[in-house]
Amino acid sequence: MFIIGYFLIAVAKIISLLINIYVLLIILDAILTWFPSLHNNPLRHLLAFLVEPLLMRVRKIFHIRHIDIAPFVAIVLLYFLNEFLVRVLMRLGELCL
Questions:
Q1: pLDDT tier at 67 (50, 70, 90 boundaries)?
Q2: Over the range 54-74, which residues count as b (16 or more CB within 10 Å of their CB) and which as e?
């Protein structure tokens, strides 16, 4: 059973790392939107390709005129997912040890 426990702990750590990286990408994308000269930058296009699918779903649910709160809401949701899912997987992994 200890192999399953270590596997769950490893999966939890990988998920946590990926969520943290995605949060950083959302922050970087939000900051780059403040600079109009960078809208045609390839890095900006890559970030938009990676981040926009989540942000568009959030914008459909939390639509406020003239204010884009989608990055903030997405970051809060990702942190909640990180805290909840990762802790559950870590706890399950510890129980299997």
A1: confident
A2: bbeebbeeeeeeeeeebbebb
Residue 84 burial by Cβ neighbours in a 10 Å radius (0-12, 13-18, 19+)? exposed
- Quote the domain boundaries for residue 72: 2-96
Domain count, the chain: 1
Alpha-carbon radius of gyration of the chain: 17
- Output the CA torsion 84→52→56→27 (10° steps): 60
Sorted by sequence, the CB contacts under 8 Å of residue 43 that are 6+ apart come out as: 32
**22 phi/psi in degrees, rounded to 5:** -65, -40
Q: pTM higher than 0.85, yes or no?
A: yes
